[in-house]
């Protein structure tokens, strides 16, 4: 008999002889009753997106908004860096980024949120990013030949897409965790 087998036999005897701690069965039954209550109320235990995750997503959006404001402030302070892009290229870039943004919004709207309030909160946060886009558009109207404004607009689109990708990745991770939890509970 190997050392490992001997050790396992000794440990098995110890584990078989120990009793569960006081209150273990009561706690287990309470937890089981809570899960049954969720099922009776039409919810699967562990389903949907938790409010904590929505707050994390909202924090990501807030970071994007803050970055946009800082980018605008510092872009105005730096001497003009001449770039080869023309306003016509901005029109093309805008069309490209708007298509990608609309695709990401559709992906976010397709997720199964546990309540419409969470979904509305997230979509409202995304809509607030449009305020900064409108500020950039106003700056572009005031200074149509300023390459810094054009660069700031393109960077805003890029940051917006990055945040939306992070949100989608977090939602996918939450969905995966929820699915795994549901599979473990059903086993």
Could you characterize the architecture of this molecule?
The protein has 187 residues and is mainly alpha-helical. Mean pLDDT is 76; it is low at 78-86. The chain has helices spanning 3-17, 24-40, 51-77, 87-110, 116-142, 147-186. It has one domain. The chain is built from 6 helices and no strands. Helix content is 80%, strand content 0%.
What's the quick description here?
By secondary structure, this protein is mainly α. The chain is 80% helix and 0% strand.
Keywords:
about 80% helix, about 0% strand, elongated, mainly alpha, single chain, about 190 residues
| Radius of gyration from the alpha-carbon trace, in angstroms | 26 Å
Sheet/helix structural class: mainly alpha
Instruction: Give start-end ranges of low-pLDDT stretches.
Output: 78-86
Largest sheet geometry: none
User: Into how many domains do the coordinates divide?
Assistant: 1
Q: What pattern of helices and strands is seen along the backbone? A: HHHHHH
Gap between N and C termini:
35 Å
- What would you call the shape? elongated
Percent helix, as a range, is: over 70%
Count of helix runs: 6
Please tell me the overall pLDDT: 76
| Total strands | 0
Question: How large a portion of the residues is in β-strands, by DSSP E?
Answer: under 5%
Protein topology:
Blueprint: H1 3-17, H2 24-40, H3 51-77, H4 87-110, H5 116-142, H6 147-186
Helix pairs in contact: 3-5, 3-6, 4-6, 5-6
């Amino acid at each position: 008999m190997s050392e490992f087998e001997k050790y396992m036999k000794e440990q098995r005897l110890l584990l078989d002889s120990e009793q569960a701690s006081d209150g273990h069965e009561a706690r287990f039954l309470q937890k089981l009753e809570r899960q049954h209550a969720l099922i009776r109320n039409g919810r699967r235990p562990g389903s949907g997106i938790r409010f904590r995750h929505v707050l994390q997503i909202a924090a990501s959006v807030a970071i994007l908004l803050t970055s946009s404001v800082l980018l605008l402030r510092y872009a105005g302070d730096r001497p003009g860096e001449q770039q080869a892009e023309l306003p016509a290229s901005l029109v093309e870039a805008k069309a490209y980024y708007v298509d990608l943004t609309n695709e990401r919004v559709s992906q976010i709207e397709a997720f199964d949120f546990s309540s419409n309030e969470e979904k509305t909160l997230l979509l409202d946060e995304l809509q607030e990013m449009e305020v900064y886009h409108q500020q950039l558009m106003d700056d572009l109207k005031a200074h149509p030949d300023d390459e810094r404004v054009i660069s700031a607009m393109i960077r805003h689109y890029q940051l917006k897409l990055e945040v939306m990708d992070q949100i989608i990745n977090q939602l996918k991770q939450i969905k995966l965790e929820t699915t795994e939890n549901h599979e473990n509970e059903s086993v």
